[in-house]
């Protein structure tokens, strides 16, 4: 493990006090501290109290935390519940049937509203259709769809019948989709004919066909297709079914399948240190608790709020803070199909204005790109829009640099809205370190303090706690309800990735962190493993390397590292040795483009390297290990001031440095 303290440190200034928020769910630091103290005094009891408050149980649990098989922790294990019941039926029973659940805005601006009663009815019809096709409790269903009401309905319908869904982001390639279908052993794929983004039609069903044609997906019996654009698509009558034909005529009620709290609600694949993505498995009860609890406390969500998370359901944020958390609280939320820059870079601001959004949650990369766009065009500056409805802002996925924070605070939040910089991961299920808007004084660039009950700490390689002010490894000392349960099909990898023995039973997040000596606030300093964060998307360097070397006609060897990028946070930089002489000039540019397209085809466009440099060789130690530390310096354009005495072939660095 290597600890890199990035340049993105928190601004050194006095914290901005929280606004006076009457009736906030966590009102003031006193209230925060008393929750922290409650968790410390009776850890299992604290979470059990909240689990009874936030989740409706079919039958109550008797044990909160069960750590008898650590690190395979269980929470509320003998309790029975249904997640879809908690998100939908419960709202109707509370009299919220006519309340708007989703305000869907399509790419072309068309708006569809759907209330809780209708969302429940549609979920039940699809759940019945899934059952009619033989999908049952414990089966896996892959959902490969863009942002849509149907995508959310598909997730809820799986939850309703106890099927475990695995949503695959619509930007992933056929190869990546195939790998995920195969690893999950899915019996069904739910998809759409096409997706619409930024005025363009992009294929989905055709990619499913391609994925299945690659082989290894024999478990898939049916492909359900939502008709989004109506374009002509290839059809295999033995397996393809229109979603509307399957659901038409299905009854609009469907008894929920009551499952144990530990029943796997979903698997979501994410990148790790090896070439193979990990299927992060989440539970039902503990996950739902934290989804609902953090949605309420971190965003201080009230009944009349209009919540908007700009994430995609293909990522964890779209699970916890679109498909589950807000629905479990009976909230009204905006769901957006398109992209922030279409038809122009004022789209987000216009949507906030049109839908009177009160809580807005987005990614630092989006903010940075919209800052850039508004610098070139006054028309799309947030000041041109009426954003007075906003109450709270949030960011997720990557560190937010203080300059972007200030801009967001001033121009979008009008200087009055607290920004919650939420640190968490696919594996953590929900927020881990975050300000609470009515309690925590803010420091731009810092995710501030642990959510009450989360035992975050900064340690060294031996697991010993470090003094504040010293950068180290971020760990979580105690298990929490929404944590990853295992890696699907690979419990050993779960144990070795997250619970390495030297850390003595703490969860290893994979990030570095530092705490401020004066405030105890955390600042995340970036990944300490071979994972990059590009525009808030996690990418494994080894995944990209394997994609490059699988281009066997061209590539002999490849190494991938990250370098800082103003807009995307990090950029992917690949060092490539070809099977032919090192190219230069136009030829180098042309081959680099070929390789970028190759990677897009293998993984997806988000994995395309920004820089590709060619060398006769790669810098290696005498024992043949690639020296990534040096490659990182070359990628950043830094001088090679580091010790190169262990390097087998020092001249190669000069060559790589000049090959840009
Ligand atoms: C990074 C996204 C700094 C971090 C929810 C983490 C952050 C990885 C923040 C998880 C933040 C996420 N500040 N870094 N507020 N939020 N990260 O699994 O490196 O897609 O480990 O989950 O994103 O990415 P993932």
UniProtKB/TrEMBL annotation:
This is Acetyl-coenzyme A synthetase. Residues 32-87 form the Acetyl-coenzyme A synthetase N-terminal domain. Its cofactor is Mg(2+). Residues 89-480 form the AMP-dependent synthetase/ligase domain. GO terms for cellular component: cytosol. GO terms for biological process: acetyl-CoA biosynthetic process from acetate. Pfam families: ACAS_N (PF16177), AMP-binding (PF00501), AMP-binding_C (PF13193). Mg(2+) binds at residues 549, 555. It catalyses: acetate + ATP + CoA = acetyl-CoA + AMP + diphosphate. GO terms for molecular function: acetate-CoA ligase activity; AMP binding; ATP binding; metal ion binding. The keyword Magnesium applies. Keywords: Acetylation, ATP-binding, Ligase, Magnesium, Metal-binding, Nucleotide-binding. Its EC number is 6.2.1.1. PROSITE patterns: AMP_BINDING. Residues 543-625 form the AMP-binding enzyme C-terminal domain. ATP binds at residues 397-399, 421-426, 511, 527, 538. CoA binds at residues 197-200, 317, 535.
């Amino acid at each position: 493990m290597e600890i890199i303290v990035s340049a993105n440190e928190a601004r050194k200034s006095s914290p901005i006090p929280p606004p006076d928020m009457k009736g906030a769910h966590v009102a003031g630091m006193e209230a925060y501290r008393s929750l922290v103290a409650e968790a410390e005094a009776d850890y299992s009891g604290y979470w059990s109290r909240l689990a009874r408050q936030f989740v409706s149980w079919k039958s109550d649990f008797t044990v909160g935390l069960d750590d008898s098989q650590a690190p395979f922790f269980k929470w509320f294990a003998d309790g029975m519940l249904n997640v879809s019941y908690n998100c939908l039926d419960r709202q109707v029973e509370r009299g919220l049937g006519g309340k708007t659940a989703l305000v869907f805005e399509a790419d072309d601006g068309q708006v569809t509203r759907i209330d809780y009663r209708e969302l429940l009815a549609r979920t039940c019809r699809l759940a019945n259709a899934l059952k009619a096709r033989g999908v049952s409790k414990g089966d896996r269903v892959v959902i490969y769809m863009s942002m849509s009401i149907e995508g959310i309905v598909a997730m809820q319908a799986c939850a309703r019948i106890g099927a475990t869904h695995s949503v695959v982001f619509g930007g992933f390639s056929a190869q990546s989709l195939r790998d995920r279908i195969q690893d999950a052993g899915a019996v069904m794929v739910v998809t759409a004919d096409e997706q619409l983004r930024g005025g363009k039609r992009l294929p989905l069903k055709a990619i499913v066909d391609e994925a299945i044609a690659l082989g290894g997906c024999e478990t898939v019996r049916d492909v359900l297709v939502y008709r989004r654009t109506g374009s002509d698509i290839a059809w295999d009558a033995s397996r393809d079914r229109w979603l509307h034909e399957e659901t038409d005529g299905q009854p609009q009620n469907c008894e929920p399948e009551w499952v144990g709290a530990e029943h796997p609600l979903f698997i979501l694949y994410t990148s790790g240190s090896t070439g193979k993505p990990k299927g992060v498995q989440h539970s039902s009860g503990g996950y739902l608790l934290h989804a609902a609890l953090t949605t309420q406390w971190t965003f201080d969500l009230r009944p009349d709020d209009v919540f908007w998370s700009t994430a995609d359901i293909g990522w964890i944020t779209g699970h916890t803070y679109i498909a589950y958390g807000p629905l479990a609280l009976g909230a009204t939320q905006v769901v957006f199909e398109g992209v922030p820059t279409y038809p122009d870079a004022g789209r987000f601001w216009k949507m906030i204005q049109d839908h009177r959004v009160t809580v807005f949650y987005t990614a630092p990369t989006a903010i940075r790109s919209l800052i850039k766009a508004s610098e070139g065009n006054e028309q799309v500056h947030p000041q041109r829009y009426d954003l007075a409805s906003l109450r709270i802002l949030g960011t997720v996925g990557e560190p937010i640099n203080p300059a972007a924070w200030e801009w967001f605070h001033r121009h979008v939040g009008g200087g009055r809205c607290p920004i919650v910089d939420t640190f968490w991961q696919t594996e953590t299920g929900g927020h881990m370190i975050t300000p609470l808007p009515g309690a925590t004084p803010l420091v731009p660039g810092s995710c501030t303090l642990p959510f009450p009950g989360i035992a975050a700490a900064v340690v060294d390689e031996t697991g010993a706690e470090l003094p504040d002010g010293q950068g180290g490894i971020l760990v979580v000392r105690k298990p929490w309800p929404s944590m990853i349960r295992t890696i699907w099909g690979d419990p050993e990898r779960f144990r070795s990735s997250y619970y390495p023995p030297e850390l003595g039973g703490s969860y290893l997040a994979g990030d570095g962190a530092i705490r401020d000596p004066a405030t105890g606030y955390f600042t995340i300093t970036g990944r300490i493993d071979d994972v990059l964060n590009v525009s808030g998307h996690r990418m494994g360097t080894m995944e990209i390397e394997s994609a490059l070397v699988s281009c066997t006609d061209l590539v002999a060897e490849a190494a991938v590292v990250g370098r800082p990028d103003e807009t995307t946070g990090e950029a992917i930089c690949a060092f490539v040795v070809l099977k032919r002489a090192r190219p230069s000039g136009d030829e180098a540019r042309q081959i680099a483009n070929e390789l970028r397209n190759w990677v897009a085809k293998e993984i997806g466009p988000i994995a395309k390297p920004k820089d590709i440099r060619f060398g006769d060789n790669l810098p290696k130690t005498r024992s043949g290990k690639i020296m990534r530390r040096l490659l990182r310096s070359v990628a950043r354009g830094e001088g090679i001031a580091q010790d190169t005495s262990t390097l087998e072939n020092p001249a190669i660095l000069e060559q790589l440095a000049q090959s840009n």
